Q: What sequence folds into this?
């Protein structure tokens, strides 16, 4: 049976931003549709409207010519629209089966039978009786998909499903999605990853700043054309020159271990690596494999044994972040809004978070506001932060501008080593390009970078050497030229 | 139709308006309660809020009650601003009073200008010592400071009880649970003949000025602000978290201890069982009503002090139980928290414009 989903003139306005501006789209079953756009382009708002989470200010939605009134997620379910969110909505401590039965009205026995049939049909193998916390990200996603399939949906919406998956899990997911599509389920795939669109989809709708920019067939597009549509300008491609090989060792980590008391953290086991001057060491991995702990150990938020970290011929394992900054290290954490900066504070106050002795931000315990402001103005102009008002609260900066401010703040000391964790996470393409250029420039000045990132493309673009972290252990360090994303994917999944 | 919409950013005007709104709503609700109890609401409110401060004596009493509230609330704002939840100021007040009272009793038949400063210092140290217990337990053993500081309140009250009944009770006091009267050298001087307002008010004003300076002009104040917003950021910036926790508790304890000194060396002049009508707890309301801002705390302490006086007047003239005062304090906090909703949301009238 054919399914036809029509979005007609949908508008959703938030204070200060038009999230969806008169968007009209039509989907037909049998095809896989990509909804492509940068962060903030309005694609999430649109799918939330389709799944009943958000009610649009104007516009209608029709499923097979029936006008749908979606006032809540349960309305969407009743109308056979299934949705798999980017972040899983599963109870970690309950078993897979318990998670599935929660929002189902079926009897235990018949539900179990139904799930078994679904799993057999699509070649899923998941133990229904183990707690969800023992599953890999890919398996958890399958549980979410099964949850939708139980209701035999007509429409299945996937919101950035591959952000937590390995390459292998991604290709498995694509196979399943193609199979669903053949069986007549209409699939809408939301992403900002161009490669995936090319691999998987039949048609692509591009959104930019709340508006629908284009709808086209994939066969008429290529990665560059889509990127330009998404960003709205022609992007220059950045390439890193091969670094001059240097044997001047800057930082050396020896037998570093970290055992956490928190069961939700990952223990680090026997970490060993070194980085030379002018080099970028990339650390790949699926999120949650110890990256956050590794960053904290390197920044000094977690203190380790003195001798485990040697920096510029000093042992600094027992120093806190402020003391490490005096040795010319700099840190850019993953969480911009809760750690690297305080949104409720003004820009210049956020600059004062990186307090090093020669800055004179604080003299004899008093705040030297003039000095801080002077410094902030320099950062804003040197790093292209799009504002002139340093009294502005930083919550009013876009993610990209905030990240520029943070990186600028960290680099103003001209550190020998910058450690950054997912520096471009959630940024738009323009800001990503800027950050990448900045990082390359650092290397060119013979300064070093440790780049912990979950974005494989970014790592391959910027790193000289790459290692993979899996369950708190580092793989051997490889030269970036010898590495492919497939190989990284295998290591990220834990195989050798 | 009225629709509730989230604000883009918390409104600064509303930030200072909500305490006023809270006080107004408290008056309305209070009037309603009086009405239900069978009193004339306006008359009752008049006895509660206007009669007590209508004369010179009343005004002096207002300042007398506001002084400890303001002092303690200033101290607490150091803790609250930096994400430390000291709710045991009442205990720190009591222990400060015990230590300073003990010192004052040592000098009970001596006179000298040096006695009062020693007594005051002893009170501050007593408060600090007592506040250091939850602080040290929190930093080194990860205990919850809310529980520890609260429970220590009752410990200090029992210690005081024991002392005034036992070892420190007045030998000529016919077994009343109280100590000797302190010598005049150990008492805070009165400011005006015939009024009870004493020099302790200068301690409170000094605390206001110093705290303003620390909050807005010093590195410590900056670190407190950062820690108050995000402990993760404070850690990332490399602030010495443990040191700061202990420091803010000590400051807070010193302020509460000083408030205790003010009570026993001011209007009371000796130690006995009831040295504080829960100033230490009420000051929590004062700190939040004053938005943790030194100037705000001055106004808040005056407003809340009226509830103490009003409760007494209302009891005398209208036979309304004096615990009504606590009802009013509770209502102020309740309405303040409720009207904080307006900080983040606003009402939008739909239909007027699109």
A:
């Amino acid at each position: 049976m054919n399914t036809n989903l029509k979005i007609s003139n949908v508008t959703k306005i938030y204070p200060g931003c038009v999230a969806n501006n008169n968007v009209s789209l039509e989907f037909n079953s049998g095809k896989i549709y990509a909804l492509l756009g940068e962060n903030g382009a309005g694609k999430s708002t649109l799918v939330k409207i389709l799944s009943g989470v958000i009610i649009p200010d104007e516009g209608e939605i029709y499923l097979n010519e029936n006008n749908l009134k979606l006032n809540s997620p349960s309305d969407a379910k009743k109308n056979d629209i299934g949705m798999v969110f980017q972040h899983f909505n599963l109870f970690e401590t309950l078993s897979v089966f318990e998670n599935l039965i929660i929002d189902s009205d079926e009897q235990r026995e018949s539900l179990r039978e139904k799930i078994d049939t679904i799993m057999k049909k699509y070649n899923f193998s998941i133990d229904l009786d183990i707690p969800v916390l023992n599953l890999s990200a890919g398996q958890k996603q399958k549980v979410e998909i099964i949850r939708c399939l139980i209701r035999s949906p007509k429409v299945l919406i996937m919101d950035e499903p591959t952000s937590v998956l390995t390459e292998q899990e991604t290709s498995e997911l694509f196979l399943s999605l193609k199979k669903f599509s053949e069986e007549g389920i209409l699939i809408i795939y939301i992403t900002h990853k161009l490669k995936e669109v090319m691999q998987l989809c039949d048609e692509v709708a591009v959104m930019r700043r709340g508006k629908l920019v284009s709808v086209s067939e994939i066969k008429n597009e290529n990665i560059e054309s889509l990127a330009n549509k998404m960003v709205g300008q022609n992007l220059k491609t950045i390439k890193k020159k091969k670094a001059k090989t240097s044997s001047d060792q800057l930082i050396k980590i020896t037998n570093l271990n970290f055992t956490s008391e928190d069961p939700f953290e990952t223990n680090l086991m026997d970490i060993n690596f070194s980085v030379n001057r002018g080099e970028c060491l990339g650390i790949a991995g699926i999120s949650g494999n110890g990256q956050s702990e590794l960053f904290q150990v390197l920044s000094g938020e977690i203190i380790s044994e003195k001798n485990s970290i040697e920096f510029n011929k000093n042992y600094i394992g027992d120093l806190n972040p402020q003391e490490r900054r005096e040795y010319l290290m700099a840190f850019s954490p993953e969480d911009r809004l809760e750690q690297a900066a305080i949104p409720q504070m003004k820009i210049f106050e956020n600059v004062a978070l990186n307090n090093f002795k020669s800055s004179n931000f604080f003299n004899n315990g008093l705040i030297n506001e003039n000095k801080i402001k002077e410094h902030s103005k320099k950062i804003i102009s040197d790093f292209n932060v799009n504002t002139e008002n340093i009294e502005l609260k930083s919550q009013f900066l876009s993610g990209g501008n905030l990240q520029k401010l943070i990186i600028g703040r960290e680099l103003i000391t001209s550190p020998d080593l910058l450690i950054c964790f997912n520096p471009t996470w959630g940024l738009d393409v323009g800001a990503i390009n800027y950050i990448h250029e900045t990082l390359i420039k650092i290397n060119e000045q013979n300064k070093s970078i440790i780049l912990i990132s979950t974005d494989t493309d970014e790592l391959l673009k910027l790193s000289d050497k790459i290692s993979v972290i899996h369950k708190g252990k580092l793989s051997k360090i490889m030269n970036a030229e010898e590495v492919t994303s497939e190989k990284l994917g295998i290591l990220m999944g834990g195989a050798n | 139709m009225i629709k509730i919409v989230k604000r883009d950013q918390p409104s600064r005007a509303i930030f200072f308006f909500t305490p006023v709104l809270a006080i107004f709503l408290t008056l309305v609700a209070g009037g309603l309660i009086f009405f239900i109890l069978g009193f004339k609401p306006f008359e009752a409110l008049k006895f509660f809020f206007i009669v007590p401060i209508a004369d010179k004596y009343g005004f002096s009493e207002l300042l007398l009650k506001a002084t400890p509230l303001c002092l303690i609330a200033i101290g607490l704002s150091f803790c609250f601003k930096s994400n430390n939840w000291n709710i045991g100021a009442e205990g720190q007040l009591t222990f400060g009073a015990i230590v300073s009272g003990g010192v004052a009793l040592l000098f009970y038949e001596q006179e000298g200008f040096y006695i009062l400063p020693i007594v005051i210092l002893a009170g501050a140290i007593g408060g600090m010592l007592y506040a250091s217990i939850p602080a040290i337990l929190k930093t080194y053993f990860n205990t919850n400071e809310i529980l520890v500081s609260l429970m220590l309140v009752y410990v200090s009250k029992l210690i005081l009880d024991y002392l005034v009944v036992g070892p420190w009770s007045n030998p000529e006091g016919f077994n009343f649970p109280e100590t000797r009267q302190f010598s005049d050298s150990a008492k805070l001087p009165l400011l005006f003949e015939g009024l009870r307002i004493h020099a302790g008010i200068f301690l409170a004003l000094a605390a206001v000025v110093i705290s303003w300076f620390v909050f807005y002009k010093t590195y410590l104040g900056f670190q407190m602000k950062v820690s108050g917003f995000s402990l993760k950021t404070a850690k990332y910036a490399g602030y010495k978290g443990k040191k700061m926790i202990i420091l803010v508790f000590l400051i807070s304890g010193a302020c509460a201890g000083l408030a205790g000194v003010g009570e026993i060396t001011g209007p009371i002049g000796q130690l006995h069982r009831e040295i504080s009508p829960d100033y230490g707890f009420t000051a929590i309301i004062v700190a939040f009503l004053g938005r943790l801002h030194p100037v705000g705390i001055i106004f808040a302490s005056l407003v809340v002090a009226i509830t103490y006086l009003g409760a007494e007047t209302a009891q005398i003239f209208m036979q309304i139980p004096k615990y009504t005062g606590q009802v009013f304090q509770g209502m102020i906090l309740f309405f303040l928290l409720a009207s904080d909703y307006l900080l983040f949301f606003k009402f939008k009238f739909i239909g007027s414009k699109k």
